[in-house]
Structures are given as structure tokens and as C-alpha cells.
Write a structure and sequence with these properties.
The structure is a homodimer.
Chain A lengths: L2 E4 L6 E4 L38 E3 L13 E5 L14 E3 L2 E5 L3 E6 L13 H18 L7 E8 L11 E7 L4 H17 L3 H12 L3 E4 L3 E4 L10 E5 L11 H21 L5 E6 L14 E6 L6 H6 L2 E3 L3 H10 L2
Antiparallel strand pairs in A: 1-2, 1-6, 3-4, 4-7, 5-6, 7-9, 8-9, 8-13, 10-11, 11-12, 12-14, 13-14
Helix pairs in contact in A: 1-4
Chain lengths: 332, 332
Amino acid sequence: MPELRKDPIVGRWVIVATERAARPSDFKLKHESPTESGTCPFDRGREAMTPPEVFAIRPGGTLPNTPGWLTRVVPNRFPALRVEGELKRQGEGIYDRMDGIGAHEVIIETPEHARDLTDLDQADFRNLIRAMTERVNDLARDVRLKYVLVFKNHGRTAGASLRHSHCQLIATPIVPQQVKEEIAGGRRYWDFRERCIFCDMLSQELESGKRVITENEHFVAIAPFASRFAFESWILPRRHFGTFAEMRDNEAAGLADSLRDVLRRMTRLLENPDYNFMVHTAPLSGAAMDYYHFHIEVIPRETTVAGFEWGSGFFINSVPPENAAKYLREVE
Amino acid sequence: MPELRKDPIVGRWVIVATERAARPSDFKLKHESPTESGTCPFDRGREAMTPPEVFAIRPGGTLPNTPGWLTRVVPNRFPALRVEGELKRQGEGIYDRMDGIGAHEVIIETPEHARDLTDLDQADFRNLIRAMTERVNDLARDVRLKYVLVFKNHGRTAGASLRHSHCQLIATPIVPQQVKEEIAGGRRYWDFRERCIFCDMLSQELESGKRVITENEHFVAIAPFASRFAFESWILPRRHFGTFAEMRDNEAAGLADSLRDVLRRMTRLLENPDYNFMVHTAPLSGAAMDYYHFHIEVIPRETTVAGFEWGSGFFINSVPPENAAKYLREVE
């Protein structure tokens, strides 16, 4: 069972692997490329190589764990957290720990091994957003779980270890520190102005236009004012809502289109950079929040996070967001 | 003039380069190795290639900016922040910005181009700590500056861009978010128990011994209970103090010895990994703090920080700190 441990000073949680703990020599493999083998467990026809699927989009009504799917969600074979068990919160002197309860799933974006996410078409993106939504809403029923983070690692420096294009989700038994900080920030602003800070940000950005990358009926993509990373992009809904569960069908389609648009612009402009995206959604258990606004953050991994950033929480960004937005807007 | 911008939601500051703003094509160079050219500005005899030195250890009493130095501090030629000017705090709608005032210096650890920090001897490490101390104490006199972060990037994945071994320091006109969070955490614990949380942690670690890596008369190195990174190590003074200014001479020697010991163990065990270290010292302007404890954090960069970490602030560590400490203790 993996273990959750809390830093006693800043309250940051860490998942410590205990079963498959690495040895020093395990890190020597770090420079190997992600596997390209013909035995990829995410390929069409190799469904038996993954744990049984928990969700799939099968327009032909084919049987689970057989070909015929377009988007497929399976538990991670080497999960960071485990579904079975109780939290067993306990102390060790001044420290706090609990069992690593949670869920870790893989959203396979396509049955075709060699296609990148940015090669996929509009319908595939809409399937991807639907798969995210279904899984998050399903996991919300587990009262032990407080949060689900959906994210993507594309490329080796962004943390991808399998070439076949996929997203992941990790559900945690506590609300992550970073989400808490965003909520606290949104709440401080709400207490002061009784408005959502994200809504205010969006209306200011739409008025000036200088940091807007692309927009459609339901979503707007901007280069945020205080971007940590060069060409960082945030995708926000025009209507205020906080969770997947509150997103309407036409908004889900708008999100899919906007995400595809942003990733394709970025991939074209920066020539297939490594990147991450993270879906920022409100905690599972809460009611609708006036002060938290659903969004996706996309970060190209073109620069190295070094000692200054790790020590301070400051970031150094060599591309002003106004320039980044202009470059990304002008991509054909 | 670079610009400091504040994220309106979480309060994180970002330094945005404006003068030498990068273009998308600038990132194509990222896979090139750090320069190994014979024209290294940090080499003995090339002192004229750097801005004039602000501090140097010259046992023979040689003139500034000539050979004869052992450790030398110069302003960074391409500083992230600039010394001249005023902060000029201003708003832009809901956003906050100010001019990028601060200092950015390079501590050249040795005049010899090809020696790594871990190749240097005890006296060199003591000179390094002395250079850090002198510079931080000197910058503390500038009332515009609130914090100095001293850090090291070793190896390309840790952000090093020049091969010649060096540390850096960046002085900022605001206390970084991460330092504020540590101080707030220390203060919460103090309010509750009227003891320093770092002191309590240290005494618990010394009693159990299982996460202790190495210790000397004045400093103890541990693998912290909630290590974010595999083989992360913290070096803490036994006596409570918060800043360079409060450190006694024999403690400075103990810190140098402990840092050298930890880095050499890590370098041996992991076969010259890329790494960062960050000196965690209290803000410049404060009086002595009962609840903040000076320390150095060392993080090997063996694993990739991916979407889960960026989205949640959680970390996944595949080496339990008890194992890491044991491996590091056993290095000969």
C-alpha cells in the first residue's frame, strides 16, 4: 500500500511508494526512450493487456475489453494510489500519514499507437472530454475521495513514459494544496467584491484582447497575466461553473474544440514541444462554488525549472504573455 | 527593465523578461549542451570578461578582477532582476505589477574550469559558505530588498547553462510565496506549542535515527519525512537560528563540511546526478524569528515533475526517505 505523508511545515502531501520502492540503480535508466514496442497495451486488439476497462466509447456497441472503442479508460497497472481499503490516518510523533487510498486511471485517447493528441479530430476531442466527465462524475460517488485531477503528460521531459497518447486521472482522499490555495484566493476576492475573480479576469482579458489566444461560443483561451512558463495558456468557460458535473453538453463540445485549437497552435508554433495540461475543477464533495471557476492550464515544457523556482516559488518567464498570445493567435 | 507580476488568484510572483524577450525559435536550441569553450568567463585569468567583482577571497591580497582568487562573486551578466531603480508598484485592472528591482549574482566556486563542486576540498566549501554569508549580509543593507535566495543548479536538467561550477543568488523586493508559507507553517506550530517546528523535527529525527544521513557537531542532514524527491536531503543546524547573519563561525564551518559530505554521498550513490540546492534563510528585514530555522534543501533531479505535480502540488516519491537515508549513510 502506498503511503500519504504530510510535510509538517507547509502542509504539502507526498505519495511515497512502498511496494515497488526504487533502488538507486533504478534511476540509471532515466535516459532511455519511452517504449515503442509492438506490444503496446493501449493498441487496438491488445485490450486484454490492461486491467478491465471502467469506461469506453463504443459506437458499434462492441463488448467491453474488445476492439471497437474510440476512447477507453482503464485503471493504471502501476497505480500511485490504490482503490481498496481505508485511510487509517495516524501520527508518527509530529508527522501525519495515511494509507494511499485513491484511484489512478488512464484515458487512452485513440486505439492507434502512433497518433499524437494533436493529430486527432474534433470528434476524438469531444470523446476525450466526455470520458473525463464520466469518470470524474463516477468517482465523485466514492465518499472517501475528495478530489480528481485529470492531466496529460506529453513527451519525455513532461513525464510521459508511454508513447501511446493518453491522459491520466488521479483521485485523492484529500484536496491538494494547490487547489486549496486557488480556492482560498478565489474566496478572498469574493469576500472583498462578491464577484468571481476568474470571471473578472476573463472580462478584463476580453476587453483588452491583448492576451487572448482564441475563443469560441463557450470558451476563451488566454495567456495569463502572470504566466509561469513561456507560452502557458489557460482555457476558461465564459459561463461561471466549477466542476465537470455542472458543464452543459454544448459547453463540453466548446471545451473540446478550444483545447484542440490551443494544443494545435502550440504544437505548430513550438514544433511539437513536450507539454502538460491539468484540468482545474472544484473538489468533489462541495456544492457549487461562487468563487471557483473551472479551467484547463496548458504548460509547454520548454524551460527548466531550476533552484530559484524550487526555493522561492517565483518563476522566470522569458516570453511576455502578450507576445505569447500574439504568436499563438497568428498561427495558421 | 524586467517586470514582476503577481498571479491574482494564488499570489505567486513571476519575473517577466521584457528586454531580451525570447521568440518561439529561441527554444529550438534547448538540446545543445552547456558551452565547454576555452573562453569561459569564470576561468582564472579571464576576470575581465565578467562584470567587476563584488566580493572575492584572495589570500595573497591580489588586486580585484585579477587572478589570485579562490572564490569570486560577480553580478550576473544577464540578470533576472536589476539593481537600479525604484519598484513603481502599479495596477492593470485587477492585476498587480512592479519593476523588476533586485540583484542577481554568481558565486564562482573555483577558478578551475573542469572541477565540479564535489571535487572541491573542505577549505573551498568553507570559502563558498563565507562568500554566501558576506553577500547576503551586504545585500541586507539595501532597504528595497526583502529576501535573498542562494541556490545552485548542477547539470542541464537542473537548469545549469554554464559548465564552470557556480552558485547563484537572487535578491527580491518581496518575500517569495514559498518562504511565506514556510514561515506561516512555523508560526502556526509556534502559536500552538511555543516551540520551533524544525527544532522538534530535528530532535525526533535524532532520536529515531532512521532518516539521518550524516551529522557533525553543528549540523545534521536528514531525508525529510515527506520528501518530494527521491534522495532529497535537508541540512539543519542543531542550534536554532534563522539567518546567515546569526550563524557563528564554527557553525559556518560545520555547514560547509555537512554540505560537502551530503553532496559527495549523493554524487557517489547516484553517479553524478543533476541536482539543485536552495538555502532557506529568513527574510532580510525581520528580527530573529523563533519559528523559522535556517536550512539547506538538496534535491537530486532524477525524476520528472509532471502534470500531476503541477496540477496538485502533490509529489510522488518512489524512494521512501528511510531507504534513501540508509543508502546515503552507507556510502563510503
